SDR family oxidoreductase (Rhodococcus olei), 272 residues
Amino acid sequence: MKVAGKVAIVTGGGAGIGGAIARALAEGGARVVVADLDAAAAQTVAGKINADHPASAAAVGADVADADAIRGLIALAEKEFGPVDMYFANAGITGAPGLEADETAWDRSIDVNLRAHIRAAQQLVPGWVERGEGYFVSTASAAGLLTQIGSATYAVTKHAAVGFAEWLGVTYGDRGVRVSCLCPQGVNTKLLFPDESEGDGLGAAAAKAVTSAGEVLEPAQVAADVLAAVEDERFLILPHPQVLDMYRRKGADYDRWLRGMRRYQAKLLEQE
């Protein structure tokens, strides 16, 4: 799909990968609603886009795990730019390590990392089927294909996000709805490198696992990979190509892979 002339919504668009995707879309000729829990951050991204590409972006502060908030994003996009053609479900959170996450933490992770995708698809896909065209891009993680050392909530919900994206592609791929799933490893964002005052990162062992597994990419590079995949209508987006090799080794011998992951985890914990 060509992005020029399309209307897109990007969640988690106030920084990092989401902000870079929003800018790349505008540079490609799309009009973008930038959504983020941090309204000021979303406004900053939209303001910079509009400075270079006038009337190309709108910003809104929203909890995109909430169905009513998603409904509001769609209404804003339609009012400002027209019917939504593309939805980038990019917002995500990590979680406490081990089994320490309580019911509230699990519910929040499931809501943000999975149900936010489901709720957006429920509102958009029927209209796309009627129009014969639409594009849903899910930001999952390499953790959704492999796993995440440390945070169970992150590993489980990212696996679920991949599964939902696969299901969307299978169910609606022959009805005009295109689906891509982004599964990066290390990206230079607050998720990997949080501010010292914030406790929303992956945690020391998990962050070390990610940074030692390969190159830490800049968000703009990941965004370029996303738009290239959208243009080619490719499902799996792997900015770190080695993830595919790891995924193949996992599938070829699951028990060997699990043993290797346990050894890797023990090594990382020894270094703390």
